[in-house]
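Running this now, will post back.
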Amino acid sequence: MNAGAEHIRLPGASLRYWPAALAADEADAALLRLREELDWQQREILMFGRRCPQPRLVAWYGEPEARYRYSGLQLEPLPWPPGLVELRQRVESLCGLSFNGVLANLYRDGRDHMGWHRDNERELGPDPVLASVSLGAERDFQLRPLRGEPRSIHRLRLGHGSLLLMAGATQAHYQHRLPRRPGLQQARINLTFRRILPPD
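Update: finished.
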């Protein structure tokens, strides 16, 4: 297994990428296990003043204090299942950080997606840290600056078993998304491990 990290250089961002955080057989097993083990739901979120179903399935797990709010949703953490406990330990070891919650996203095929956004909720603190594990179909991850040239989009292909760490001022300076991939039939699971801070 090659767990070496690559530094992705973007002005004002702190990004590290492990192309093979999990060996291929580990990633295969995790994909199958989590697809069955997690309590996947399609929730409604608030977008531009109206409620609509998320174009993917989600699940939120964590410590009892890790309550998380985004897009009009209040998420109460479910207890950590064994498959997520093992991945959390691997991610914390690679990143040298601790996490108390994880948002799991299941993209059933290339039609499921995530629009432009920032993970800058108050619970994540002034410099949010997100460790994003990808399992299954390879998908494009895109970042664009909040200020400056809006067409300046950085693209990163997130592979099966990879890990992307976003830290520092990344959320202050950039938005990110996972666009549709027409024709793709394979599923992808994305796990974004987070540190939820206690309320003020």
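The helical segments are 24-37, 82-95, 170-173. More later if anyone needs it.
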